[in-house]
Amino acid sequence: MKHIISPTDLTVSELDELLTLAEEIIQNPKKFSEVCRGKKLATLFYEPSTRTRLSFEAAMLNLGGSILGFSSADSSSASKGESVADTIRVISSYADICAIRHPKEGAPLVASNYSSIPVINAGDGGHNHPTQTFTDLLTIKNLKGRLDKLTVGFCGDLKFGRTVHSLINALVRYEDINFVLISPEELRVPAYIREEVLDAHNISYEETRKLEAAMPKLDILYMTRVQKERFFNEEDYIRLKDTYILEEKKMTLAKKDMLVLHPLPRVNEIATEVDDDPRAVYFKQAQFGVYVRMALIMKLLEVENA
Ligand code: CP
What we know:
Helix content: 25-40%
Strand order of the largest sheet: 7-6-5-8-9
CATH architecture of the largest domain: 3-Layer(aba) Sandwich
Bound molecules: phosphoric acid mono(formamide)ester
Strand content: 15-25%
Radius of gyration: 19 Å
CATH topology of the largest domain: Rossmann fold
Structural class: alpha/beta
Number of strands: 9
Distance between the termini: 22 Å
CATH class of the largest domain: Alpha Beta
């Protein structure tokens, strides 16, 4: 049985198979509408979510399966003090697969140690968000046609943004990837990512505060919101939250085929005027999240293709 706790829990070749299956589903979703009949997905969300929880649920329903779960710690027995370990032991007898989001880094890993069903990390604190990464990779592969030979700019909260950490971890395994890490000093990519991921893979990267200067170099611009919920101090959040705002004026500096991704939710960091730019693909990216999660559920449940 396989769990997905980190984006690198899939090898590059497994990831390639996953993305290929997701693209088959995009082409012909009806073909897969019964493959999980009789299977149940549990969504255990101890932290708020719109896209991840609902796209997991939509994915299982699209496959003909059923869903159960909770959408906040307050509406579960976690509010009475139940541990993640005890919860997953119980859920293992109610469902065939589960997706868990938790504010504590490492909670999905703990769950996987006590689970008899596949556990998928749906985001743990500021650490990892592997299924967002699979969504991002599907978006880039489908719309750009490749996952290598790319200069990828990450902009915003690179310290707390788990989607950034996960996507960097996944992309360093492809050829000729360069990063431009655009953030204020306080929100730089953590040292462990720089040392244990970027330096360890000999990845070429630069750190800068200047979005405008970086724009012309980029094939992908990955915008992120400043993660209010992870700040200890509201004053720091207020000071940093609007450091970067992508407007159409800045988009004129970019390549004609640069793509703008954002894991969403957006706050102020992308002006709504950018939504009409054909290079802004963040809503399509959210839609791809359903297809890649359908493919992941099928792979983890070892469901035969239709
Ligand atoms: N991208 C993402 O994780 O969104 P939600 O927090 O809405 O799930």
